[in-house]
Amino acid sequence: MNGFEKRASQIKHKIIQTTLQMLSSSGSSKIRIADLAKAANVSQVTIYNYFGSKEILIREAFIDYVDRAILEFEQYMDENHSLKEKIEHIILLEKSSYKELPPGLIKELLAADEELSRYIELQYKEKTIPLTVRILEEGKRSGEISEGVSIESVLAFIQLYMNQYETILQMAEQSEDMDKYLEGMVHMFFYGICGKP
Questions:
Q1: Quick check: 189 and 91 in contact, CB under 8 A?
Q2: Residue 72: which domain range?
Q3: Which residue in 18, 20, 58, 87 has the fewest CB atoms around it within 10 Å?
Q4: CATH number at residue 38
């Protein structure tokens, strides 16, 4: 990469990061290119030259966010963590991501952009699910997952948590101690309400 390409990449990255910051605080409908340009310290023309439109910029910013999240997820899963730590990571991953991009905003973005929605679905099917299955299969082989529990049922249980995570997070925020509340949810995932500590 020559100096010009490196500078162009840095500018694009800055615009994308600024867009993500503004999305998390304002939502997509309130974002204006003029405000983005000012916050990123670039001209509006520069934004249009790199992205073409506000919609494409928002799509690319969200794709960048998802790609980084998947990469971090893959790296964590490849590290030397116990199965319990890995599953806990999967469940609690939503906690930090929802702070960065609220669930309502994600739904709004996916509903407004069919191409973005297809991309996210593809990443989920081709990367997230296979990696999760691999981790669960390793847990079955090592005896960390009970013989009486199938991989499909663990995946379904994780999906139940994910489908209700927005509600779980709202309840956690209303509790006296959010982290303790979420730790309790993870405990119930592994052990039920009467299981071992």
A1: yes
A2: 55-191
A3: 20
A4: 1.10.10.60
